[in-house]
Amino acid sequence: MKAILRIIPLGLLLLPTLSFGQQTLQLSLAKAVDIALAENGSARVALAEQSIHRAETQVSLAKSAFMPVIDGSAGERNQTVNLRTFGLNFSIPGVTFPSLVGPFSIADIRANAKFAVIDFTNLRRYRASKSGLEATKADLEVTRTDVSQQVAQAYLATLRADAALEASRANVELSQALVTMAQSQKDAGSGTLIEVTRAQVQLANDKGHLTINENERRRAELQLLRVMGLDMSMPVKLTDTLGYHAVNVSGVEASLSQARGARNDLKAQKAHEDVAHMNVSTIEAERLPTVGAFGDYGAIGQPTLGLEQTRTVGITVSVPIFDGGRRKARVQESLVQYKTEQIRTRDLEQGIEMDVRMAIDSLHSADVQVETAREGLTLAENEVAQAQRRYQAGVSVPLEVTDAQTRLDRARDNQIVALYNHNLARLSLAMATGTIQEFVHQ
Q: pLDDT band for position 4 (50/70/90)?
């Protein structure tokens, strides 16, 4: 039953997107990320959530140190006692004292309790466990961000494969049209067999590229399904396209400020630094005195004579004096870990600045690349149209058409690469500034 309940959230995500006739998953980028982040989606997210459960257990364990420990006992024993072992050796003339007493039975029914009244070590250990829980929750957000990035990258790669496949089909259609045109020119007596053969060679090459792109599309789809945690036999149809989306970059300093406040990995690292600092103070608190209370209450006596109620209450004060230097060594070890976390925090902050600056530069470069590719594609399409008209009019050779077609193929590839790099740059900027969810759901 529990397994069924865990599957329900993922099923609800998939239900609106499945076509039961074709069993094809209609998938947008936002839907792909939501499926991966669902309970039965990515294994990385599921493992990170289990880490939170472990951290919550550690908090409960540390909290239990503030509660009294109560246990009960009941027993009966039959014994004999050698009085001489206690130094009771009486000797009176005419009177004989036995050295053994018993056998007799003693019954004891008792409840025992002890409680830590003042224990700074337990208090700081509890605070450290709560900090550890917060750090684990921050780690979960880092994992969710990483999985979102992986899904987005795989989705963009699949969009690129879709665009390349569509361009290959367009190339095949153009080559087929050129073969028909060359054959018509030959049948009309204005063309030659070599021209038909050249057109057929170009068509065969384009069909080979089409087969390669079909395989690349399937490979990209499998990778996308893998990072989403879905069945790899499920066919996928992407609802987004590899288009251009203008990005208004607010500037380096503003982006850096946004990144420092939004990056989950920086939040998680600072949380780990706090945990390391709390661990140092926890060990240092072991030098402080502790105060505890204890007590018991019950009935004891011989069953045949009756039981009498007895009790014990008391307070203990424990003062650490000397432990051979073990505590000092543990403090030094914790300090090393704390300083290590501080170094990691500074290194991550520098890495964030580098990520932001490089992402902004990449986005500017990608924008220029998209504009250049767009102009090149327009020129290449015009060149092919002009070459076809010239060939049909008989004022050019078919080699001119073939050359124009080759440049058009390259221009289409350049545009696909430019749009892919542009979207990757947008994703990199979103990751660098901690706005991956805005990128996914825009």
A: very low
Residue with tokens 């204890």: 294
Query: How far is 435 from 250, CA to CA, in rounded Å?
Result: 13
Instruction: Name beta bridge partners: 92.
Output: 95
The pLDDT confidence band at residue 229, using thresholds 50, 70 and 90, is confident
Name residue, tokens 């008792």.
Answer: 110
pTM of the model: 0.77
By C-alpha distance, which of 321, 305, 312, 422 is closest to 367?
Answer: 422
Could you give the CA distance from residue 181 to residue 391 in angstroms, rounded to a whole number? Answer: 9
Residue 324 phi, psi (nearest 5): 80, 10
Task: Identify the H or E element spanning 249.
Answer: none
> What number of H helices and E strands is found in the chain?
10, 7
Q: Burial-class residue 202 by CB neighbours within 10 Å (0-12, 13-18, 19+).
A: buried
Tokens of 306: 């009756």
Secondary structure percentages of the chain, helix, strand, coil, to 5: 70, 15, 15
d(CA 220, CA 54): 36
What is the model's pLDDT at position 106?
87
For 44-81, what is each residue's pLDDT tens digit?
A: 888 888 888 998 898 898 888 888 899 999 988 888 88
Supply angle C-alpha 131, 132, 137, rounded to 5.
Answer: 100
Question: What CA dihedral angle connects 72, 78, 83 and 87, to 10 degrees?
Answer: -20
DSSP 15: G
- Cβ contact 179:196 at 8 Å: yes
DSSP bridge pairs for 316: 292
